Amino acid sequence: MDEHKLKNAKIGIAGLGGLGSNVAVSLARIGVGNLVLVDFDVVEKSNLNRQYYFLKHVGIHKTEALKEIILNINPSVSLEIKTTKISKNNIIELFKDVDILVEALDDPKEKALLINIFLKNFEHKKIVAASGISGYSSSNSIKTKKVLKNLYVVGDENIKSNSDNKLFLAPRVAIVANHQANMVLRLILGKEEV
């Protein structure tokens, strides 16, 4: 593995909930050198069932809590935290310097907005998004797909409409997050196929 590429890579993470917090931790653990972490929210007790935070972080901005966690894991990671809500007016400014963007937002409209603006303005950059992660269906249904030249989507295309799909739980959220982190790793190393 090319540690130089990992150390020099700059990865943006849009949203630091269940997906984003777990992706960030995985990338820090494998030696990605630069992370841009963007979220406006604070950690709530209800987040602890799937997000990479601890009880002591309740009430603290997710950006600050995750900064503490990551620096305890890998103090050599360069962190840029931006405690702000992502909107159509700031997407370009927030992520203009990243090599790869991880989409980890909750709202489908916000996801689409981020992806569309990012791909339109940064045609040479890659984005790794996620969809269909709730419930406790089989882990084997989660896949990473390359859907456009620069867009990869991780998720479960076979979501059935039943009550378990309204639950967001640690196992499937972490599986999707680590699919995202692994795809980012592959892209850093020049592997563009899934």
TrEMBL record:
InterPro entries: ThiF/MoeB/HesA (IPR045886), ThiF_fam2 (IPR012729), ThiF_NAD_FAD-bd (IPR000594), Ubiquitin-activating_enz (IPR035985). One of its GO terms (biological process) is cyclic threonylcarbamoyladenosine biosynthetic process. GO terms for molecular function: nucleotidyltransferase activity; tRNA threonylcarbamoyladenosine dehydratase; ubiquitin-like modifier activating enzyme activity. Keywords: Nucleotidyltransferase, Transferase. Residues 4-193 form the THIF-type NAD/FAD binding fold domain. It comes from the Bacteria. Pfam families: ThiF. The keyword Hydrolase does not apply. This is Sulfur carrier protein ThiS adenylyltransferase.
